[in-house]
Amino acid sequence: MKIDKETIKALSADTRVDILKALSERRKTPTELSKQLDLASSTIVEHLRKLEDAGLIQRMETHHKWIYYEITSKGRSLVNPRIPIYVLLSLPIGIGLMFFGMSNIFAPVGYAAEKLASQQVAAGAASVGSLPVEEFAISWPFAAILIVGLAVLLFGLWKIAKRR
């Protein structure tokens, strides 16, 4: 959603923001808004006109003498911005998968270091040697989990950045 100059002007007054919040509950008449916000009806009508010009609310004519105002989808997205739950869940899931993958990728290295140290102690070696190359093999299933976790995390961050 693009925010234009009219929208910024309409949101520059706290009263108009309060009107938008009140209309996000349900559609209301100017009199209801006047009572709820403790303002004069003429003041409310003036603010409603500015919000309507910005496209944040719309006037609803009924077949009765009452005129209702209701919030538009543009106004609702400003009052109650929504980030889909799958985006919110993707962040901790991605981070969790990344940590799980990282902690297990390097587990064979730690195991190999312990194995070499125990062999050296058993052999009575005085100096610590280097680890054999074959002990550094990457655990590919955990590397795949790390990559999937990174992809899920980047997806969530991309979706959040795209909404702004």
Give the overall silhouette: rod-shaped
In round numbers, the mean pLDDT is 80
- Rg calc: 31 Å
Q: What's the helix-strand series?
A: HHHHEEHHHH
Q: How many beta strands in the DSSP annotation?
A: 2
The major pleated sheet works out as: 2 strands, antiparallel
Number of helices, counting only DSSP H or I runs of 4 residues or more: 8
Structural class: mainly alpha
Report how far apart the termini are: 9 Å
pLDDT < 50 runs, ≥5 residues: none
DSSP strand content:
5-15%
Placed side by side, the strands forming the largest sheet appear as 1-2
- Count of folded domains: 2
Helix content, binned percent: 55-70%
What does this structure look like?
This protein has 164 residues and is mainly alpha-helical. It has 2 domains: 75 residues, Winged helix-like DNA-binding domain superfamily/Winged helix DNA-binding domain (Arc Repressor Mutant, subunit A, Orthogonal Bundle), CATH 1.10.10.10; 79 residues. Helices cover 66% and strands 6% of the residues. It has 8 helices and 2 strands, in the order H-H-H-H-E-E-H-H-H-H. It has a two-stranded antiparallel ribbon with strand order 1-2. The chain is rod-shaped. The termini are close together. The model has no long low-confidence stretch (mean pLDDT 80).
